[in-house]
Amino acid sequence: MAEKELQRSKSVLPIGTVMKLTDLTARQIRYYEEQELVIPQRTDGNRRMYSLNDIDKLLEIKDYLDDGINMAGIKAIYAQQKKRADDMKNESLTDSDVRRILHDEFLNISGFEPNSGPSLHSQRPLK
DNA sequence: ATTCTAACA
DNA sequence: TGTTAGGA
């Protein structure tokens, strides 16, 4: 069943197809790459080739944008998502630690609304 | 015909 | 983000 994941990971779609599938402009798609949100594979003459997983990621990003979250916020979300994945590997964490982390993440995400500017507040809401 | 990078009347 | 110039 891991074969399907391999297929979804195969980068075979040129940016033109991705544009049609996601309704995003080439400018946006390339910009998100600069923000390190979706890094497509390159081929022959330096052309971007995306995978189905990349498409999903882009659609996901588009949803976050619609919900009024900015680049910084989206980056934060994925950064936290990665942080979360790392935590799963550390059995050394206690339930209390995990809950503190999740609570911390929640506060940070809510701080990335459109108008709420770069006021990247909250850090240690030690209770 | 498509996509790429860089740059901004 | 849009758009365009100049290449590949």
Per DSSP, the total helix count is 6
Task: Give the low-pLDDT segments.
Answer: none
| Biggest β-sheet strands, sense, barrel | 3 strands, antiparallel
Global shape: globular
Which CATH architecture of the largest domain? Answer: Orthogonal Bundle
Strand content: 5-15%
Structural class: mainly alpha
Distance between the termini: 45 Å
**Which fold name fills CATH's third level, the topology of the largest domain?**
Multidrug-efflux Transporter Regulator, Chain: A, Domain 2
Helix content: 55-70%
Strand count: 3
* Mean pLDDT reading: 86
Strand order of the largest sheet: 1-3-2
CATH class division of the largest domain: Mainly Alpha
Number of domains: 2
Alpha carbon gyration radius: 17 Å
SSE order in H/E notation? HEHHEEHHH
Organism: Secundilactobacillus silagincola
Protein name: Glutamine synthetase repressor
Keywords: DNA-binding, Repressor, Transcription, Transcription regulation
GO molecular function: DNA binding; DNA-binding transcription factor activity
